Amino acid sequence: MEDTRKILTSTPPMGWMSWNLLAKNISDSAVREMAQAMVSTGMRDLGYQYICMDDHWHGGRDEHGALYPNAEKFPHGIAALADYVHSLGLKLGIYSDAGSKTCGGCPGSGGYEEIDARTFASWGIDYLKYDFCYATDTRADAFALYSRMGQALKNSGRDIVFGICEWGHHRPWLWGNQAGGHLWRTTTDIWDGWKDGPEGWQAGVETIAFDEQRGLESFAGPDHWNDPDMLVVGLKGKGAVVGPGCTDTEYRTQMSAWCMLAAPLMTSCDLRHMDAVTRETLTNPEVIAINQDALGKQGYRVCRSSRAEVWKKPFVNGDWAVALFNREEEPRTVKAHWSDLEIEGRYAIRDLWSRADMGECDESYAFEVDAHGSVLLRLSRA
Ligand code: GLA
């Protein structure tokens, strides 16, 4: 069958998602303020585009079965909010669920796919995150339920990015694209911490980055991305979804890893009140360029020595992004050997976080990397 699908995410989507910071406290005013901050911080012009409402925007279903928003939180309705977000040159995302209820207990779209997709389209929605609570939890059902909404979104006549969120339970990288998805979560919920949280579903940055994405690189590419969940950069333990927070070094490591993984860059901190370090972490154009490279290859680990890792990701112009990671509790020297990277010859090295040219090398390159830290390099043929 001819695939006539229009490409909506030729590079990984970038934006902000409300869940970690606001959870139930989502509101029209918070979404507008976040959109304004996206512009005033310069993030929009760096590619951050989607302002996504997560769970708890809902009021209920009317007598025709159509969803409506919570009137106290969204007194002007969603269409007016979408108009405002669009007027800033940004796009609006919304959240629903394949089952009878969302994870937070609001009305789900199970059985209402067509009418909900039409409602979202009529409001001017550009992105749907589609969760999997209260749904029959088998792979066949997951595929069927996501395909139903995927088709309904196509039928809606509006271009809406479809984010599958079944937490990687049924290997969505094998069927998500066919179900109409542009991206699919590969993990349970990220939590604002380096190590995992006390509940089984609270995955720390370290686990997601280094243990859970390996082997998935062949399933990602333009318009079909693996999604290791939101960036927690800058939350600093202050989110409504509680976590202990990470150090600035660990947040930077998350950004390094997510860029190397060609992961969606969905920020979740308070963009209205970012400190200088958070802003720097999220707005380094040379780092973002790794993530947004047109080739759309997901980077991967090429070698490790104990808990130090070297990863690579190709750029479309023949350059290489190389990441040096140190998962240990002490600083250590991490060395990238050309043989491990499977490259030959002389390369000019640029350190992307410090934005400094580091000279040329033709065999290996070593760097002192902080505990839980990362170094990002761009190698260009000399
Ligand atoms: C699930 C998802 C989260 C978030 C919440 C909302 O846990 O995985 O990302 O959307 O539901 O209730």
Compute the CA-based radius of gyration: 21 Å
* Ligands (ions, cofactors included): alpha-D-galactopyranose
Distance between the termini: 45 Å
Chain-averaged pLDDT: 97
Largest beta-sheet characterization: 8 strands, parallel
Instruction: Compute the number of strand runs.
Output: 18
Classify the secondary structure makeup into a structural class. alpha/beta
Strand order of the largest sheet: 9-8-7-6-5-2-1-10
How many helix segments?
A: 10
Helix-residue proportion: 10-25%
Series of H and E elements: EHHEEEHEHEHEEHEHEHHEEEEHEEEE
State the low-pLDDT regions, or none: none
Shape assignment: globular
Classify the beta-strand content into a percent band: 15-25%
Describe this structure in words.
The chain starts with 13 loop residues before the first strand and ends with a strand. The model has no long low-confidence stretch (mean pLDDT 97). The chain has helices spanning 19-22, 28-40, 77-87, 113-123, 139-155, 205-212, 248-260, 276-282, 285-291, 338-341; strands at residues 14-17, 50-52, 58-61, 67-69, 91-97, 127-131, 161-164, 183-185, 225-227, 265-267, 300-305, 308-314, 320-326, 332-337, 347-351, 356-361, 364-369, 374-381. The protein has 382 residues and is α/β, with parallel strands linked by helices. It contains 10 helices and 18 strands. The longest helix is centred in the middle third of the chain and has 17 residues, at 139-155. It is globular. The strands form 4 sheets. Strands 9-8-7-6-5-2-1-10 form an 8-stranded parallel sheet. Helix 7 (248-260) packs across helix 9 (285-291). It is 25% helix and 24% strand. Alpha-D-galactopyranose is lined by residues 19, 54-55, 102-104, 131, 165, 167, 189. The site of alpha-D-galactopyranose has 10 residues, from loops.
